Request: fold
Amino acid sequence: MHWPDDLLAEIRNAGLYRHMPTIEGPTDTYVTVDGSRAMLLCSNNYLGLAAHPNLRESAVAAIGQTGTGSGASRLVSGNLALYDNLETKLAEFENRESALVFSCGYMANLALMTTLVGVGDVMFSDSLNHASIVDGCRLSRARTVVFDHSDIEDFKRKIESARPFRRGLLVVEGVYSLDGDLAPLDTLIRVAENHHLISVVDEAHATGVHGINGRGAAERFGVSPDIVMGTFGKALGSAGAFVACSEKIRELLVNKSRSFIYTTGLPPAVLAASSAAVDLVKSEPGRRRHLLDIADHMRNKLREMGYNVPAGESQIVPVIVGENEATVRLSRALLDRGVFAQAIRPPSVPPGTSRLRVTPMATHTWEDIERALEAFYQAGRTEEII
Reply:
């Protein structure tokens, strides 16, 4: 059987071969990557909660009281009391009637797309939406209409050209994970309301970081979409995801969404850690303020050095290199200097836009950031990128 070798050769020749770097120790400000000690600047652990003692202690206590697994799907015997406690806390945190926890964000998005719309309906999806949304659109059997990224006028045109339809749904992300830009939710939600569309905002990369209370980009823009999806596996330092919605939508998801019905419940330790993380987001707003300050500083300084860094207001700082192999070389040069910033290449980003996705954490100090910027300067000069 030679075809796997042929396919792998094609991947290597295109400069797209990947391997999974081995991380030792907790996901924290510094880690050991494939045997090298380095500052971690490519994690989604934005608030630095993955190693927080409150989460660790809550997880350990839950294991002691409840064991290591839920044992079944939530509709059989896996709906632990920890779920009820977490969902009550989430509904209060998001200022919604209800919330439903899923095993991961991918499953949550599949559930939403396939439950809310179907044949005869239309899904209006931003062109840069995450793969989980794209796959959910495909599986829903609704007609998917893609509009240009964050383009309000194109969105309006697509609504008019898509008529007639039974139900319409707008789905966008609050913060786009590879470009670091925020969706113009104030305008998008208003247009959706004017055209009687259901609005869904994926706040995976915004929950805990944006908004005065950490609810996400929608809170930052002062709007209230019909449904919000958020995750625990990023800024909240745990695992899993949730949907914040009305009681009726929750009831529909429980009864119709295959990715909920046919999945084993999360382990007790994960549920307890997630609950502790929500408490920290509420009680320590200084974490997100510091995070956004250091990200903004990095964005400005990297641009001053000559790097191609788009304007933005989020914790995600994309450093666009362009060519695949040059991006990998820059990543390696940084690792040699004690900074881990992984190369992001197609199909995650369009061809010709390979980049480093730089993501500081709230636990990085100003001294850490200056050390990282010096590494970027030296590596960029060595690789002739700046």
Notes: The chain has two domains: 14-43+285-382, 53-283. Residues 61 and 137 are 39 Å apart (CA to CA). Residues 286-305 form the longest helix (20 residues). DSSP finds 14 helices and 14 strands in the chain.
